[in-house]
Design goal:
The chain is built from 3 helices and 3 strands, in the order ββαβαα.
């Protein structure tokens, strides 16, 4: 797959700013610092059909009914910083969704690891059996 970070998604991204909740002092009621990034997956010209399918499958919980992938940032007090954070998170989400996971090859535990595990279990059992009260009957 081609590097997602190298592509210029700016022309396909839509941004919307609104008032953010949380701390902010006097600015909190008058500055629109919360940024919402929206990206229409199916209409994208920069993603291949295979990549679109992967994104739609893996990020289904972040895609709304209209087909937009949404990322919201409101941690910073600056709208500009929140916008940059949104773009970073968006690219990271796409990168994670489009990378293929390596097939896991099943392996057996080594003899020494099995031996160590069983020895540990024996020591633990012995320790617990020594704690029990053995009265003279």
């Amino acid at each position: 797959m081609i590097n997602i970070g190298a592509r210029d998604f700016e022309r396909e991204l839509q941004f919307q700013a609104s008032r953010s909740g949380g701390a902010g002092g006097q600015n909190v009621n008058k500055v629109n610092s919360k940024v919402e990034l929206r990206f229409h997956v199916e209409n994208s010209e920069l993603l291949t059909e295979e990549e679109k399918a992967l994104v739609l499958e893996k990020l289904a919980n972040r895609i709304n009914g209209e087909g937009y992938l949404q990322v919201v940032c409101q941690t910073e007090r600056s709208q500009f910083k929140n916008k940059e954070l949104c773009v970073e998170r968006f690219k990271e989400l796409l990168r994670q969704a489009t990378t293929r996971q390596k097939k896991r090859t099943a392996t057996k535990a080594t003899r020494s690891s099995v031996r160590r595990r069983l020895e540990g279990k024996k020591k633990q059992a012995e320790k617990k059996s020594n704690r029990s009260f053995r009265g003279d009957f």
